[in-house]
Design brief:
The protein has one helix at about 5-25; strands spanning about 25, 30, 35, 55-65, 70-75, 80-90, 95-100, 105-115, 115-120, 125-135, 140-150, 155. It is mainly beta and about 160 residues long. It has one domain: GOLD domain (Jelly Rolls, Sandwich). The strands form 3 sheets. It has a 5-stranded mixed sheet with strand order 1-4-11-6-9.
């Protein structure tokens, strides 16, 4: 076995192990000028038909600086439903609840100056569905999202100031 091959196997094994831990409990920590997220948020995801769906409850929380945005996604099959509740501590945010697939994006609902929402998200198609939040206030806020239903993952993207 060549050294490059061994490196690829070790890196892949590490990513899978870290991914399992992150999917069990995502906790984002602030370091310096940006929020740092775990790498599995960038791992390519299989098509919905290949995902291992299960009924579960998960939670993710993130601090969001002024001017930054972040997303949280759940992988869902068309017609499945996920109960959700998200809240903001320390301010209010813009939000966009939407779904994504290769063919494009569908916005379900959006709003400004929101401190939270709850309800049922029903997937209009196979793909990832979730929320984008943008902090347009002057203070750092904490966003917490809880999901319960049949889905494959709950992942957050890195905070960006775009």
């Amino acid at each position: 076995m060549r050294a490059g091959t061994l490196y690829a196997i070790v890196a892949t094994t590490f990513a899978v192990a870290v991914g399992a831990l992150v999917m069990a409990s995502i906790d984002v920590k602030r370091i310096g000028a940006s929020a740092i997220f775990s790498l599995p948020a960038f791992t390519p995801r299989p098509a919905a038909a290949q995902m291992n769906f299960a009924h579960k409850t998960e939670e993710a929380s993130v601090e969001l600086k002024p001017g930054y945005s972040v997303e949280a996604k759940v992988g869902m099959r068309k017609g499945t439903r996920v109960d959700y509740a998200w809240s903001v501590t320390g301010g209010a945010v813009f939000f966009d609840k939407h779904g994504e697939r290769e063919e494009g994006e569908k916005s379900y609902e959006w709003g400004r100056d929101s401190s939270g929402a709850s309800g049922v998200l029903e997937a209009a198609f196979d793909g990832s569905h979730g929320w984008l939040w943008r902090n347009s206030g002057r203070n750092t806020v904490r966003i917490t999202v809880r999901t319960k239903g049949e889905f494959n993952f709950l992942l957050t993207s890195p905070a960006t100031n775009r």
